[in-house]
């Protein structure tokens, strides 16, 4: 297998939405070509690949989607934010939040600076006030002001 054939194989598999780990395994199994993950990653960065197929769709929470009729009264503690020491895939920074209303979620800021929330399993939706307080508290936390 020539380098050009190898590169075409890698690009085709990545365009199909296959992960780098799976491409690495397919190269070894189907073509007998063994590469380290780092070598494959560096090679793939130079290939013409539709990387948008690898982006995960994350549902954004919008204030108009929040059902305020089920909102609990805020607790005395307010919003509690933690910043994870481990960076989640596709995120520049991430962590957890417990809103004053008791709702819980995972939050992240992606590499393009977009903020996203993933509501906790079996958790209520945060209120509009929760979301506003969260954004303010997160800015303070990340700027060193603490919460």
Provide an overview of this structure.
The protein has 147 residues and is of the alpha+beta class. The protein has two domains: 3-54, no CATH class; 63-142, no CATH class. The chain contains four helices and four strands; from the N terminus they run αααββββα. It has helices spanning 3-15, 20-31, 37-45, 128-142; strands spanning 80-83, 91-98, 104-110, 115-119. A four-stranded antiparallel β-sheet has the order 1-2-3-4, covered by helices on one side. Strand 3 and strand 4 form a beta hairpin. Helix 1 crosses helix 2. The radius of gyration is 21 Å and the shape is elongated.
Whole-number count of domains = 2
Describe the strand arrangement of the main beta sheet, using strand numbers. 1-2-3-4
Number of helices: 4
Q: Which range does the strand content fall in?
A: 15-25%
Number of extended strands: 4
The gross shape turns out to be elongated
Biggest sheet overview: 4 strands, antiparallel
């Amino acid at each position: 297998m020539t380098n050009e054939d190898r590169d075409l194989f890698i690009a085709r598999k990545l365009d199909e939405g296959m992960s780098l780990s799976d491409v690495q395994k397919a190269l070894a199994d189907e073509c007998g070509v063994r590469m380290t993950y780092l070598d494959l990653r560096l090679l793939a960065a130079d290939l013409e690949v539709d990387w948008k197929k690898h982006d995960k769709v994350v549902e954004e929470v919008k204030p108009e989607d929040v059902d305020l009729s089920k909102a609990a009264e805020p607790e005395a503690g307010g919003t509690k934010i933690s910043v994870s020491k481990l960076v989640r895939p596709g995120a520049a920074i991430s962590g957890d939040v417990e809103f004053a209303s008791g709702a819980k979620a995972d939050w992240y800021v992606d590499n393009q600076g977009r903020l996203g929330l993933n509501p906790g399993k079996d958790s209520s939706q945060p209120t509009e006030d929760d979301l506003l307080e969260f954004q303010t508290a997160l800015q303070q936390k990340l700027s060193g002001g603490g919460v």
